[in-house]
Amino acid sequence: MRPTPLALTLLVLAVPAAAQDRGPAGRQALADLAYVLGEAHALRQACQGPGDQYWRQRMVRLMSTEQPDPGQERRMREAFNTGFSIRQGQFPACTPASRRAEAATLARGRALSGRLAEDSRTSPPDDMADPRN
């Protein structure tokens, strides 16, 4: 059975902190999540076709939510594009192996999203940061 991306989507959208408010580990986790989103985008396109923009749109939302500084934005974009390119090269067509890779990728994304969301809830707000909504 094909895994549902709903949980990952909800977690990506639930990550409330801005990138600049995160420490080095959180910023790295955002880059890692961008990489996973790029992988998921390529793997989904292998089966759904090149017009499918589901995970790319989630990346756009993540960038909008996080509002990273220019350096972090570049890092996240490069991570997304690298993840996409690698998986597109590995799985140019929809196969049982590409479906298994997609399931594993979604599981990694859920774990990263959960960690980012948890870090956002447990980290004390920075007094100099804008209040969070």
In DSSP terms, counting alpha (H) and pi (I) runs of 4 or more, how many helices?
A: 5
Question: What's the story with the biggest beta sheet?
Answer: none
What percent of residues adopt helix (DSSP H or I)?
over 70%
Please, how many domains? 1
State mean pLDDT (0 to 100 scale). 83
Q: How many beta-strand runs? A: 0
Low-confidence stretches: 9-16, 124-133
Q: Write down the Rg.
A: 15 Å
State the end-to-end CA separation: 37 Å
- Overall form: globular
Coarse structural class: mainly alpha
What is the beta-strand fraction? Answer: under 5%
Order of helices and strands: HHHHH
Structural features, described:
By secondary structure, the chain is mostly helical. The chain has one domain (6-114). Helices cover 71% and strands 0% of the residues. It is built from 5 helices and no strands. Helix 1 runs parallel beside helix 5 (96-122), helix 2 (24-48) runs antiparallel to helix 3 (54-66) and helix 2 (24-48) runs antiparallel to helix 5 (96-122). It is globular and about 40 Å long. The termini are far apart.
